[in-house]
Design goal:
- It is built from 19 helices and 16 strands.
- It is α/β, with parallel strands linked by helices and 448 residues long.
- The strands form 5 sheets. A 5-stranded parallel beta sheet has the order 2-1-3-4-5, with helices on both faces. The protein has a 5-stranded parallel beta sheet with strand order 7-10-13-6-14.
- Strand 11 and strand 12 form a beta hairpin.
């Protein structure tokens, strides 16, 4: 499905240029000369982005923007202006415009702004979809919702539509593996039954199999009564094997049998029972290497690796940090009935540069602490743990994995803006460039 972009501009030449350019970029563009007819179209169609001229006859661009956000709150908005005043820009910012673009339009800059706004729109769509589906899961907290890269979200939805397929989720500790497993379960036809998880690390073979399969009285020393195993508890639902790389080899053979035959036997029992469960597994280790070292069964690896999902560490998803930080802050500040107005520039810079070894889990904990410590206004460096402040200075080599000129320029601008507390005039002086040049770079990098 093509993303639909609505153009609202009273100049036919501008409309014609935008339609042709956006079509060449792969978008479906529809243009209107006045606000009311554009809004009528938006009411009856799914629109990803509206490009709105600030000065329109009759209904102003600001009025169109306001109604757009009421009709379709998640849609992006890019404001065109050749006469923009500071007051108009401030009003548009309050109405959650995504970007501003001065006329005459620079095609390269327009392309970057449109792509970033469309990507943000898709993220909001994904988040709202997941919130609706995942909220059914008892005890699930929306504040734990990870932002999913597009390819991962596609895999989640595909696996949700195939509720018997085994799943292997890989990624570092704290990256959100168990949450992705919950999403797949809750979005699938198995959501009416339980998702039952077991941590495979630190359990001996006998204890692990007792937990997994259950046991009859007398099955082993100390087994005085019948115990249901987790497979039986999860009937009709999902069994999530966390840290499967730590599962004992003898147990690996038995779980392989469950996957292949869809049957299991209670310890001490004589009859096989049906195992109507989906098997999902997660690991932070390299299972291919474990297979080579004889620590993991090759046949089990290939059986669970039908459609693997790898969650990148947060340090490789720098663009996700502001989104997640704001999301967590809104959640925890809301619970405490505090009116915290986001993050100061210096705090944003620190969060950007910190390598987040604990991934999303660590970020969530840091923001929860900041929401407790900060009483009002914006979150400042003093509200963050000293370890995060010292580790987020931008000096560590590990923080510069992306060393392209574009990435280095973006990081340097972020750092200077943080030092100048967002003052663009001072920042442009420090950088030795004209203020208008800095503003264009800020827009190009999506920092405004």
């Amino acid at each position: 499905m093509h993303d639909v972009i609505v153009i609202v501009d009273d100049e036919p030449v501008v409309r014609s240029f935008l339609e042709s350019f956006l079509a060449s970029e792969g978008y479906q563009a529809v243009s209107f000369g006045q606000g009311p007819e554009a809004l009528e179209y938006i009411r009856n169609n799914r629109v990803s982005l509206a490009i709105i001229d600030l000065r329109l006859p009759g209904m102003s661009g600001l009025e169109v923007l306001k109604e757009l956000k009421e009709i379709s709150p998640g849609a992006g908005a890019l404001i065109l202006t050749g006469y923009g005043s500071v007051k108009s820009v401030i009003e548009a910012m309050k109405l959650k415009a995504d970007y501003f673009l001065e006329k005459p339009i620079e095609p390269e800059l327009l392309s970057e702004m449109v792509k970033k706004t469309i990507d943000a729109y898709r993220v909001r769509e994904q988040r709202d979809y997941l919130r609706t589906r995942v909220s059914r899961l008892e005890g699930f907290e929306d504040s734990q919702m990870p932002r999913l890269p597009r390819e991962i979200f596609h895999a989640v939805r595909l696996l949700a539509d195939n509720p018997d397929t085994t799943v292997l989720i890989t990624g570092e500790t704290g990256s959100g593996k168990s949450l992705v497993a919950r999403m797949i379960h809750e979005m699938s036809a198995r959501r009416e039954s339980q998702l039952v998880d077991i941590n495979c690390a630190g359990l001996g073979a006998e204890l692990f199999e007792s937990e997994l399969f259950g046991h009859e009285p007398g099955a082993f020393t100390g087994a005085n009564s019948r115990k249901k195993g987790l497979i039986e508890v999860a009937q009709g639902g999902t069994l999530f094997l966390d840290e499967i790389g730590e599962m004992p080899l003898t147990s690996q053979a038995k779980i392989l049998g469950v996957i292949e035959t869809r049957k299991f036997r209670v310890l001490g029992g004589t009859k096989s029972r049906r195992a109507d469960v989906r098997i999902m597994a997660a690991t932070n280790s390299d299972l291919r290497e474990a297979v080579q070292n004889g620590k993991f069964r090759e046949d089990l690896f290939f059986r669970i690796n039908v459609m693997p999902i790898h969650i990148p560490p947060l340090r490789k998803r720098k663009d996700d940090i502001p989104y997640l930080a704001e999301y967590f802050l809104e959640t925890f500040a809301g619970r405490a009935n505090k009116k915290i107005q986001g993050f100061g520039k210096e705090a944003e810079t620190i969060l950007h540069y910190y390598p987040w070894p604990g991934n999303i889990r660590e970020l969530r904990n840091v923001i929860e602490r900041a929401a407790m410590v900060c009483e009002e206004g914006r979150v400042l460096p003093r509200h963050l743990p000293s370890s995060v402040v010292s580790g987020g200075t931008g000096d560590e080599k590990s923080n510069h994995e992306d060393m392209t000129l574009e990435a280095v320029e973006k990081s340097h601008i972020i750092k200077v803006l943080g030092m100048c507390k967002g003052n663009r005039t001072r920042a442009s002086e420090m950088l030795g460039i004209h203020r208008s040049t800095l503003i264009k770079k800020i827009q190009r990098h999506g920092l405004d």
